[in-house]
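Revision sheet: structure tokens.
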Amino acid sequence: MNVRRLGTVIGIDLRQRVRSVGWYVLLGIFAVILLALLTLSFSSFSLNEGGNGWFYSLVIMFVLLLVLLVSPTLSGSAVNGDRDAATLAPVQVTLVTTAEIVLGKFLAAWISGLAFLVVALPFLVVATFAGELNPAVIASSLGILVLEVGVVAAIGVGVSAIVARPVFSVATTYLIVAALTHGTVIAFGLGGTALRTEQTVTTRDVDWNAVPVGCDPYLENDATECPRLDEIGCTTSSYTSEVPRFDRVWGVLAANPFVILADATPPTYDKYGNPSDLFSQIASGVRLAQIPPDPAPSYDSCAGVTLQDRSMEDRIAGTVPSWFVGLFLQLLLSAGLLAWGIARTRTPARRLPPGTRIA
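Predicted:
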């Protein structure tokens, strides 16, 4: 592979995108939306400690969302679009190899997707300097975001080299992205609900019929007519129901781009042990799904102890991260599609789909 020829392919593809007025309009709309998000977020989180962390994570997630929505359109017709426009065949008869053509278009689509991140950088700088953000959070989130943009670009370019028609290749790219985002969540919800298990809950509670009106057995009452907690009888009851088993299907969320981004970012918690940004909130939810339900939980209100809810940080202690598995699966999928696309674009072709334009 020749680096100079590869750079030529990248430069040609990028110049075609830069000449489009719609490209600048799209970036301008994105900047306006980010400005509105900046204003609303600062107004919403200004009274909360660690509010800048929420704003930073919101902007990163929003950039990823926009890339997932726009990148399939930009990369889903990179190869077959040139074939329909009769500009691919002249390039194929030069010294540029098929691998250089496909990989060059992939890198150009990747750079185009990163343009949204460049537009968002001023807003991220404002959020960074407005509050004390963990440098590890900034570095890891930006790194994963850059990789996710490349994964989506690789999927689009690979599909465009495999599928003959641009319309179908763009639609197929959207379907793959939807499967990774919405499909994993749907599979998680339906799978966990389908794999139910029985749970027997036993409760021991105060016999409130024996408590006089106005008395609270959990408090020290000055009135002599108010009995103490140990003087009141308790009733025990139990019931059995079916609960979902999300701990058996949580692995499907590992390939979700938003879960990968959130789970790979170091979690941050407030002084109460609760998530202090959107990354930690999503990652904590996925980690909670790993914990199997208790088959026989019991609650004793007669013990005289007020139960305190454990913080999110304590509840997910011992769970394992999954972002590296999901990222590996995404990289494997994108690399496979690119390799397949190179094989389908290689010339001379033995067989082409009916109606495929050559020159």
